[in-house]
Amino acid sequence: MTAVPTEQHSLDEWLAYLESIHSTSIDMGLDRINEVAKRLDVDWSGVKIIVGGTNGKGSTCAMLESIYLAAGYSVGMYTSPHLVHFNERIRLNGIIADDASIIAQLAHIEKVRAEITLTYFEYTTLAALLLFKRHNVDVAVLEVGLGGRLDAVNIVDADCSIVTSVNIDHTQWLGNTREEIGFEKAHIFRAGKPAICSDPEPPQSLLDYAKRIDADLWLFGKDFNYAGDKQQWAFAGRTQRRNALAYPALRGANQLLNASAALAAIESLRGRLAVPIQAIREGLLQASLPGRFQILPGQPTVILDVAHNPHAAAVLAHNLDGMAYFPYTHGVIGMLNDKDCEEVLKKMGRRIDHWYCASLPGDRARSGQDIANKITALFPADKDGLPTVTVYDTPVSAYESAREKMGNDDRIVVFGSFVTVAAVMQKLNK
Fold it and tell me: Does residue 19 have a pLDDT over 80?
């Protein structure tokens, strides 16, 4: 769609228009969006938390949202990408924003931007901020899209910033080392404001930047920590201790680390937003995030995980190891060509007995055949002929084949990309 839509057009028509009007889908830099944000006047008095990091951003955002809601505050949450519906990116008080509300903000942005072009992500970031201002939310939780320094979310003057982890991903934009990537992510920190880092081994570049701008740096293992047994866990911050906490509803090995980052942020902001212990307990139990080690109810066991880089794949592998015994594991995988496929496969190792390799749509897609070739090179078949490797045109056809071939006591894991998980999720929701 090239003609400018109106508020009478559908959200899908608006999104098609947004994708068509800027020369590139990713255009790092803040000059254009900063100028439009000034014209729109997107600021309001609520507390603003920015969450960045290679992995763990979405989970940390979900726990912050859930805890603050349980404490009785009005909450806006902005995350990306979405899995099934675009509206998932913007939530108000735990409810996904409706089409009409989003369209109204996009139409307003379109009128105000004039000669300045914006990317799809920049438009939607501004739309979220406008909605949060319109509803005057007490607290907004904003997930960084890519990196930090030049990401559209970084126009927000955060009251608290969180970097969950620093690992290798998006190297064409952020650099090839943890030091380079850490420097980019550290730029969401603000002078004199709480700067939470839950990476157990933060890059020196992140530490140096926080010191240079005089951020109030909270480090995991120094300023906050956690301990737990099989029944419950406890958080210890600088001045607060939260005992007898139930484990988060979000599954996985790293969720206590993510929860600790959220609780450190909550402690650092306690002067503006008091949160009682009961709200923390309720919030951790109620937090949900589709596609992050999501185990679907019923038989056979189906696990959905958007793991698409080596660090996330290592966490997924650890989580799979922690599950009960299954005779065979069937893996549906589809990846983009700018991800480190070989390292992701190495982290999974021989945990997968039967591989179903799917091609993805779009310019960044990696073919299923390419994934299959890497698997057979890394893991030659053993005496039992395992692993088996087959190729499919789509994630849905790969998933359907896996469901036909698997035993009822087996498990299936769908991973490798948001696109892969979203396609299977849409199939299951029909």
Answer: yes
